[in-house]
Each structure stands twice: as structure tokens, then as C-alpha cells.
Amino acid sequence: xxxxxxxxxxxxxxxxxxxxxxxxxxxxxxxxxxxxxxxxxxxxxxxxxxxxxxxxxxxxxxxxxxxxxxxxxxxxxxxxxxxxxxxxxxxxxxxxxxxxxxxxxxxxxxxxxxxxxxxxxxxxxxxxxxxxxxxxxxxxxxxxxxxxxxxxxxxxxxxxxxxxxxxxxxxxxxxxxxxxxxxxxxxxxxxxxxxxxxxxxxxxxxxxxxxxxxxxxxxxxxxxxxxxxxxxxxxxxxxxxxxxxxxxxxxxxx
Amino acid sequence: xxxxxxxxxxxxxxxxxxxxxxxxxxxxxxxxxxxxxxxxxxxxxxxxxxxxxxxxxxxxxxxxxxxxxxxxxxxxxxxxxxxxxxxxxxxxxxxxxxxxxxxxxxxxxxxxxxxxxxxxxxxxxxxxxxxxxxxxxxxxxxxxxxxxxxxxxxxxxxxxxxxxxxxxxxxxxxxxxxxxxxxxxxxxxxxxxxxxxxxxxxxxxxxxxxxxxxxxxxxxxxxxxxxxxxxxxxxxxxxxxxx
Amino acid sequence: xxxxxxxxxxxxxxxxxxxxxxxxxxxxxxxxxxxxxxxxxxxxxxxxxxxxxxxxxxxxxxxxxxxxxxxxxxxxxxxxxxxxxxxxxxxxxxxxxxxxxxxxxxxxxxxxxxxxxxxxxxxxxxxxxxxxxxxxxxxxxxxxxxxxxxxxxxxxxxxxxxxxxxxxxxxxxxxxxxxxxxxxxxxxxxxxxxxxxxxxxxxxxxxxxxxxxxxxxxxxxxxxxxxxxxxxxxxxxxxxxxxxxxx
Lengths: 254, 243, 247
Fold this sequence. Notes:
Oligomer: heterotrimer
Number of strands of chain B: 9
Radius of gyration of chain C: 28 Å
Radius of gyration of chain B: 18 Å
Structural class of chain C: mainly alpha
Strand content of chain C: under 5%
Structural class of chain B: alpha/beta
Largest sheet of chain C: none
Order of helices and strands of chain B: EEEHEEHHHEHEHEEHH
Largest sheet of chain B: 6 strands, mixed
Shape of chain C: elongated
Number of helices of chain B: 8
Helix content of chain C: over 70%
Mean pLDDT of chain B: 88
Distance between the termini of chain B: 32 Å
Strand order of the largest sheet of chain B: 5-6-7-3-8-9
């Protein structure tokens, strides 16, 4: 456990110091503030615009951080051969993968918490009332992005960092369209096609089963039991992805 | 890897390694049956031209690669008792020397107090106490080699494997590294190092093995090698390799 | 020398870039007919971001309305845009309220009415929606029924939280216009009971126009008030309504 913690802490230190991260976060904050400019032409809907576009910024910039850092996480260690230092010591491949993931999860938590809190307080200043749902929505965005991180790590064990980033973003988009994949399973008559549709539907992570974001701007609140079930699904999916990454990584030689 | 009883610190038998190469994944055999035996307390030199398979052999011993066939037996208790310095090492450049050694100590699950003492000791041993708080990105090549040796010794291993420890070092750096190896020998450690700097091998090693094209073509003591050739170790090496 | 040349090249490029941009013609007003996808498209393709997409279209509506209401006066695509925004974000109140006037300006009061009704069904606790419905019904409706329809909507609004104090008076006024004299009289009872000095004054003024002048007929006409008001309040109101009859 302490070995995994050492790697996780090291990963956190490495990723949190990444200058690209700082640039992305600054852009995200600018976009949140910039949403006020859009809000000025919204006929008095500044609060709503700030919440909606602010959460889009948190989601999209969080995605960029998640995907580009995750794609390089394992890749960089292999390319720079720091894996020689790690695996010449009693560290398992699965331990390494999970620890790297935990380190990036900690970094992502800091980034999203920062953006979420900034949005919360900025919106409070504009709307004059606090909206705690912003924080709940940010927390769920974080869980979604953890799944994307896990999948990107899987991809990075099989291909280059750039391709893994692009595919990671593709998986995120596909995850938003999970319901479409479900409706495809009921189309067509061929059992082979149906089976294939089900396979694709289950394979793609479901990233829009429950959406908390509309309730931030006054739409109906979600069913929290569904949110809990979805959160459990996301955690299980991430663990599966990491196990797959561990297995793929264990077959690698350096 | 097998840690079954062996009288040697390291024993390698019939080691083979095949790797897929190129787009068509054509199988290329880079180790063709390597046999090695390293006695406890030896400083063992593994020599050979580039591409002979020295680094691959060491990586298989350390566990970074898996053999296609053959056997590796350690007379020490597995990974907990070996230390490894990779060729042209690259470490976490954003860490200081002390932070890096601390990390390595934690990878061996060393107790905090023991780990901190060990780190201090190693920094003194390799002469990097003054640069302990400097980030590794600012270290010279010689300093990186020394911190690399330090991380290989963090767990006070019985068997130390050094891959080309003196490559790329200036004369001062080479002397510093040689002194460290001598101190390891004096402390009863078993050291195996790859090199193609024969003068260093002649000075430090008690036994050598010469590899070419994936096989050990000669092994024995340095004295035997020197006795077999009037032109010194270089001439002996050339004779063996070109035979 | 080389540096001077590079600096001159840089300056020339800056001049071209800035010059090109500032000489672009100001954008002419767009076509009044714009492509508006069906809400189903967005509901299916991006269910996670539907409120953000609704917001973007809302911003578009504001620009579109501003551009065309002063320009060609044509708001052909406005109904579809409002429909899209409210379908994606049913509890976004402002588009429904905006539609009251904007769609009426576009010559589509019935569309505004239908949209507001949909908004009311999605937001039954917001008083502004039935209020706007009442307003639309009275302004654009026909015949006596329009007043009664308006009265019904205003009555719904008057029972919702946050509703302003004048709403019950509106109800009573609409009932009178719709010929529901007795209902109108009853409506003034709670206004008098719960209202302030101004509301009471308005109550007495309005009842003066509703009630018959003859004393006996007047006594008979105030019976519904007696039946529905608290005793004290009724006594006070009665005193005011009959103060000219006790000489």
C-alpha cells in the first residue's frame, strides 16, 4: 500500500506542476468570467448563463486536462525509461497502474474543485444567492472524467499518447450518446446486429445516464437514488478499465 | 525468475530471448542461450560489442523483460535484494536528489526513520550531499550516474547490477564511480556491470564474461584473460570477439 | 539593417491585418428565416448539455428579435426558436414571458398563448405564467368569453406564491366585464378583508358600480358577501356601502 501511495503522491506532484495544466485552468476561469459577457445580452439572465456556460467550461476543460494528462501518464514513464527505476523494485504492474490513476485522480480533484468553487462564488456574486447544486454537478463531472481517465490509460497502453488522447475524447463524446446506442439495440431484425448493438452499448461508458446540470438552473432535480446508482456504475467501470490496463501493461516489456 | 538454492549470487542457464521486430513483427532472436555464473562477492564484468545482448540479459535478470526460454536463479531473495542502475538513466527531473531517493526507499517500503537515515548515508557515500536539495534536471551526467547508483543501493542489496555505469562520464566522473564500485566490493556486495571500457573492467573486475551475437563466448577470471594474451585485455577481447 | 527590414515587414503585416478587418462591411441584417433544428435532435444528441444549448438559442433569440423588430419587422423563425428553447429547458421562464409580446408582435398571439399554456403546465407554481395568459386572453380574445377566460387565469395566478396584491382585483374586474356580476361581487370580499387602505377603497368604488342603487336590491345583492366574508369585515364594508342610505 505504501508503495502505491508513494507512486500516487509522485504522480500528483508531477502532474500538478505541469505548466500546461496551469494554462488550461486559466483558460477555464477566463471562460467562466467570459460567460458574463454573453450574459450581458441575455435579457437579465446573467445568473443562468453563468451557471450553464460555467459548467460547460468545467466539463470541457476538465476533459482536456483528464485526457491529455492521462494519455501521457504511463507513456511518459515508458518513453523516459523511469519505469526502469520503478519495476526494478518490488512494484507490481497493476499496483503501478492503479497508483498512477490515483495520483491523477487527486490532481483532477484539485483542478475541478478549484474551477467548481470559482464558479460557485462567481455565480453567487452575480445571482446574489448561493447555488449548492453547482458543487454537486461539478462532483458528478469529476466522476465522469475519472472514467475517461481510466479508459484513456487503457488506450495509452496500446497506442501512442496522441492517438490515446484523441480516442479518449471520442470515448467521452460516445459516452454522451449512450442513449442512442441503447435505442439502436431495438432497431433491426438480425440477432447478430442486435447482439453487436448491445455489445457496443455495454462497452461504451454511459456518461449521461443522469444529468444534474439542468437542475442547477432550475429544471427538475434528479432522482438521487439514480445518481447514487450511476455513481456506483462509474466507479465499477473505471475499476474494470484499470484492471484491463493492468493486464495489458503486464504484457509489456521494457 | 527462480530463487531456488544456488551457490552463486546469480546463475543464468540457457537464456533465450526472441523479440518481434518491424511492421511484420518478424521474430528476431537476440539471446541464443546465455549461460552465466556470478559468485558471491565478485565484481563481474559483462563485456561485448554493441548489440551483443548484455543489456537484455541484465533486464531479464532484473525482471524488466521475460525470457523466451532458460532459467535465472538468484542466490539472494529476489527483487528485495537486488539493486539496478539502468543504462543512460533518466529520473524524475522535478524531484530533488533527496526526494528521489526517498521515493525509491518508499518503493521498498522502508520504515520512515530507517529510510531517512539511509538516504542521508547514500548521499554522503556518492558525494551528493551538497546537491541533495537540487532538482535532478540540474544534475550533470556524472551526478545523475551517482544518484542512479545511490537509488540502486537504497535497499542495501546483496547483488548490484549496473548497466554501463561509466558511459558518457568525464574522467573525474569515471573515477568517482569506480571508487563507489570498489567500496561496494570491499563491503562484500556482488556487483555485475556491463561495459565496453576495458581498462575499467581490468581494474575493477575479478571475473568477466564476453558476449557476442546473443551468446557468452568466453568467461573466466581477469587474470586468465590477461594471461592468454600478451597485448592486454583489449587484444584478448578482440581475439575472442572476432574468432 | 536586417532588423529594420524585419520590423518594416512586421509593421506592414500589422497594417494589412488591421486594415482588412476594419474595412469589412457591417453585417447586413440576416434573413428572417433561419434554420432551427427540432428539439428532438438536441434531446437525442446531447441530453447532457440541453440547458446550455437552450441558453445559446436564447441568446440567439434576443439578437434575432432585436435585429428584425426594428428592421424588416419579420419574425418568421421566432416561434420555432422559442419552441426549441422551451422544449430543451421547460423551466426556463423568461422565453415563455418574452413570447407574450414577441409572438404577438409577429402576429402570432395564438402561438404565444399555446406556448404560455405549455409553460404553465411545466411550471404550475409560477404566477407570472397564468397572469400573462390572462393578459393575452383578454387582449387578443373575442367576445365576452375573453374576460371570463382572463378572470379564470388571473384567479389561478392569485393563488400562487409571490403573486402581487392587485391580482384579486383584476379577477373581480374581469368577472364584471364578463357579465358575472355576482361572482365579481364575491371576489371583492377577500380583497376588502385582506387588503390595505387602498384595496379597501378600490373595493368600495368597484362595488358601488356593481351593486344596484335601490336599498332593498342592494341589501339583497350583498348577501353573497355576508355568506363569504368574516363578520367584522362584512360589518365594516356594509357600513361604507350604506353610509348614504342612513340619513
